[in-house]
Design a protein that fits this description.
With 132 residues, the protein is an alpha+beta fold. The protein contains three helices and six strands, in the order ββααββαββ. It has helices at residues 45-57, 63-67, 99-113, and strands at residues 6-8, 20-22, 76-79, 94-97, 123-124, 130-131. The protein has a two-stranded antiparallel ribbon with strand order 1-2. Strands 3-4 form a two-stranded antiparallel sheet. A two-stranded antiparallel ribbon has the order 5-6.
Length: 132
């Protein structure tokens, strides 16, 4: 079976993520995002309301940073126990979290899911930035 050769579609322009097509056989675009809507994945209007409620409840402070004595502004809401691991959208399973902590937590969960040892916990410099 021949392998696909991908090329950029010049008609798409700068929208690179939507601009790659198979040149050899299927001529179909690559879809780098899920084909289901955010509503079907559980992130619709109810999630928007829950997100606002959790950020307000946690006073827009990152809960993992707060637990380590570093008050940091939270911009995201995270499932403490991920939905993939059986977590729910109930308020007790949600926390306000900063981008750095969310990225580190997501990477650790993905690594664990692949059966690898997670990276050591992040260390922080004097300004409160994540160091690896």
């Amino acid at each position: 079976m021949p392998s696909c050769t991908w090329y950029a579609d010049p008609q798409i322009g700068s929208r690179i993520s939507r601009g790659y097509h198979c040149a050899t056989q299927c001529k179909s675009p690559i879809m780098p995002w899920p084909t289901t809507s955010r509503h079907e994945r559980g992130y619709g209007s109810e999630w928007i309301k829950a997100r606002a409620r959790i950020l307000k409840r946690d006073m827009h402070l990152c809960q993992p940073c707060k637990a380590n004595g570093r008050p940091t502004t939270a911009t995201q809401v995270d499932h403490i126990l991920s939905k993939a691991s059986g977590g729910t959208d109930c308020d007790d399973n949600l926390q306000a979290i900063c981008c750095d902590c969310h990225t580190a937590k997501t990477q650790a969960e993905a690594t664990t899911a692949l059966g690898r040892k997670p990276k050591p916990k992040a260390k922080y410099d004097e300004q409160g930035r994540v160091e690896w």
